[in-house]
């Protein structure tokens, strides 16, 4: 009787405690400002005809880019549209084909996909004459093939006759077979003292130099692809390799150098002992996708990757606390600064780092935290200003907002816009700003972000389009974009055209219905850093 009583009390206590903490959470949430209060809805309406017109225009841009590639560059990595030939900047296995297939599947470009599938089946990943980047090869090739498999074995199997017994069944299975071949060819690069892979190597090398260094994005942007490969094949060796390397970023060996702020790291890591060599970093080049993948791994599998989530939260909170910064001339804008070490912050940003708004919004959605959503939308808005402020309506590769460093003759521009051109002002067909618009639209459903994306597309179509595909341009400070540089990057297919297509493609059109990227707060697919969607674990 006594025991029973005690147990009842315990149960009651537990019930009381749970009810109390739920109430607290609700109160806590309601104390956070709602998104609508901070960002009042624009009220912009777009009818289905307009959306279809836009989605078709993006498809047309894909077909145009593909036709130019096929005419002058296939089966090389990418088209050089001005000199009308191919280039091999990505190991020479036909990067544009593999980077492009997922977008073509979503657009249901049947003939293109058929050609791509047939080509991929023939690639010999055991041979390569070029230097290989572990990072680029993982995100473009491995990510591209695994994503195409997830799409074609899943929601698109009927469209492309890819189900059991149908004509493309073998070609689709070949995507996984080829992924194994590729990973098996690359995996010797993990064979170092620490297990941190070499960043660059040749297939013939046989062994890698352990006195080498790698960067945190090079180490921390492998785990999604190598884990997906393990999960699809049932062979755990691939995820083990990637996770072992990642361990040196989850727990830093020498935090006094390598972790200047909680969760925010230095850049270069030694392969022989896992120590950081420096304290500089941020969300731009060299660091970026390490942070991006922390939250994406948790979205991919909440059971296995809780520590990754916690690490993202640490980095995100430190970013808000130490790196968030408003230009003195435009206090309404928020950018994220970089650092040389914990005592030295640099007020500079880049097109690459503009993915961060989208990444915070993904974090805000999946963790159901308005704090990250609000911050994410502020950053999306800041990056939009770098597009809106230029005569070409495309943002520069690099920009700054340090009032003490404004170049001569740019004071007025800085007064008005809150940022100035710094270093390179070209545009390389990069996706990050549009990628963040996509996430902002998904979270808010505000058509304003579609308008921004359309404005960006029209500007790109006006300045980067050539007779045979699209090209990088030299100078976004000129209305016409200046000189046409000579490269149609494979990520143009994988990222820019995919995010553009998806943002205009919500109702009534196939892709979104089939894929259902988000249901409530639950993500059903997660994009790798090359915008290849992978099916998440349930
Ligand atoms: C893109 O550019 C082409 C070539 O100038 C043009 O024909 C097409 O109408 C443009 N697309 C849009 C949506 O403006």
TrEMBL record:
Its cofactor is Ca(2+). InterPro entries: 6hp_glycosidase-like_sf, Glyco_hydro_47, Glycosyl_Hydrolase_47, Seven-hairpin_glycosidases. GO terms for molecular function: calcium ion binding; mannosyl-oligosaccharide 1,2-alpha-mannosidase activity. Coiled coil: none annotated. It catalyses: N(4)-(alpha-D-Man-(1->2)-alpha-D-Man-(1->2)-alpha-D-Man-(1->3)-[alpha-D-Man-(1->3)-[alpha-D-Man-(1->2)-alpha-D-Man-(1->6)]-alpha-D-Man-(1->6)]-beta-D-Man-(1->4)-beta-D-GlcNAc-(1->4)-beta-D-GlcNAc)-L-asparaginyl-[protein] (N-glucan mannose isomer 8A1,2,3B1,3) + 3 H2O = N(4)-(alpha-D-Man-(1->3)-[alpha-D-Man-(1->3)-[alpha-D-Man-(1->6)]-alpha-D-Man-(1->6)]-beta-D-Man-(1->4)-beta-D-GlcNAc-(1->4)-beta-D-GlcNAc)-L-asparaginyl-[protein] (N-glucan mannose isomer 5A1,2) + 3 beta-D-mannose; N(4)-(alpha-D-Man-(1->2)-alpha-D-Man-(1->2)-alpha-D-Man-(1->3)-[alpha-D-Man-(1->2)-alpha-D-Man-(1->3)-[alpha-D-Man-(1->2)-alpha-D-Man-(1->6)]-alpha-D-Man-(1->6)]-beta-D-Man-(1->4)-beta-D-GlcNAc-(1->4)-beta-D-GlcNAc)-L-asparaginyl-[protein] (N-glucan mannose isomer 9A1,2,3B1,2,3) + 4 H2O = N(4)-(alpha-D-Man-(1->3)-[alpha-D-Man-(1->3)-[alpha-D-Man-(1->6)]-alpha-D-Man-(1->6)]-beta-D-Man-(1->4)-beta-D-GlcNAc-(1->4)-beta-D-GlcNAc)-L-asparaginyl-[protein] (N-glucan mannose isomer 5A1,2) + 4 beta-D-mannose. GO terms for cellular component: endoplasmic reticulum; membrane. The active site is at 136 (proton donor), 288, 397 (proton donor), 432. Pathway: Protein modification; protein glycosylation. The keyword Disulfide bond applies. The keyword Acyltransferase does not apply. Its EC number is 3.2.1.-. One of its GO terms (biological process) is carbohydrate metabolic process. Pfam families: Glyco_hydro_47. It comes from the Eukaryota. Ca(2+) binds at residue 529. Belongs to the glycosyl hydrolase 47 family. This is alpha-1,2-Mannosidase.
């Amino acid at each position: 009787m006594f025991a029973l009583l005690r147990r009842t009390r315990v149960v009651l206590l537990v019930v009381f405690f749970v009810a109390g903490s739920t109430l607290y959470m609700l109160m806590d949430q309601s104390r956070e400002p709602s998104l609508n209060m901070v960002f009042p809805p624009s009220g912009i309406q777009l009818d289905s005809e307009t959306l279809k017109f836009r989605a078709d225009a993006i498809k047309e841009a894909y077909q145009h880019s593909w036709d130019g590639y096929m005419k002058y560059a296939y089966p090389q990595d990418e088209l050089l549209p001005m000199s009308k030939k191919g280039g091999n900047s990505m190991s020479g296995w036909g990067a544009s084909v593999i980077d492009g297939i997922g977008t073509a599947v979503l657009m249901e470009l049947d003939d293109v996909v058929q050609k791509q599938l047939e080509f991929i089946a023939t690639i010999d990943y055991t041979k390569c004459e070029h230097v290989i980047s572990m990072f680029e090869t993982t995100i473009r090739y491995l990510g591209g093939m695994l994503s195409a498999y997830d799409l074609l074995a899943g929601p698109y199997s009927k469209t492309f006759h890819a189900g059991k017994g149908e004509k493309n069944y073998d070609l689709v299975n070949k995507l996984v077979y080829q992924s194994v071949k590729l990973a098996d060819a690359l995996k010797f690069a993990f064979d170092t003292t620490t297990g941190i892979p070499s960043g660059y190597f040749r297939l013939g090398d046989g062994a890698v130099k352990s006195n080498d260094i790698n960067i945190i994005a090079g180490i921390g942007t492998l785990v999604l692809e190598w884990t997906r490969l393990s999960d699809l094949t049932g062979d755990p060796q691939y995820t083990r390799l990637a996770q072992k390397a990642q361990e040196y970023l989850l727990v830093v060996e020498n935090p006094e150098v390598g972790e200047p702020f909680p969760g925010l790291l230095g850049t270069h890591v030694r392969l022989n002992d896992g120590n950081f060599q420096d304290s500089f970093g941020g969300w731009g080049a060299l660091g970026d996708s390490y942070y991006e993948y922390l939250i994406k791994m948790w979205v991919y599998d909440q059971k296995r990757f809780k520590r990754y989530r916690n690490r993202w939260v640490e980095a995100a909170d430190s970013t808000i606390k130490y790196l968030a910064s408003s230009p003195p001339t435009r206090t309404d804008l928020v950018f994220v600064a970089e650092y040389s070490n914990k005592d030295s912050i640099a007020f500079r940003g880049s097109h690459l780092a503009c993915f961060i708004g989208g990444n915070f919004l993904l974090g805000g959605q999946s963790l159901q935290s308005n704090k990250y959503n609000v911050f994410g939308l502020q950053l999306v808005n800041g990056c939009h200003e770098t597009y809106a402020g230029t005569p070409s309506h495309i943002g520069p590769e690099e920009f700054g907002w340090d009032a003490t460093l404004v170049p001569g003759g740019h004071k007025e521009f800085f007064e008005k816009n809150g940022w100035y051109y710094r270093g390179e002002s070209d545009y390389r067909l990069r996706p990050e700003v549009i990628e963040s618009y996509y996430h902002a639209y998904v979270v808010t459903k505000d058509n304003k972000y579609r308008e921004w994306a359309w404005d960006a597309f029209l500007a790109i179509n006006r300045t980067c389009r050539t007779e045979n595909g699209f090209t990088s341009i030299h100078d976004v400070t000129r209305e016409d974009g200046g000189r046409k540089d000579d490269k149609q990057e494979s990520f143009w297919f994988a990222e820019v055209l995919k995010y553009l297509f998806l943002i205009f493609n919500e109702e009534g059109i196939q892709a979104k219905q089939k894929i259902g990227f988000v249901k409530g707060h639950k993500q059903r697919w997660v994009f790798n850093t090359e915008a290849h969607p992978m099916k998440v674990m349930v």
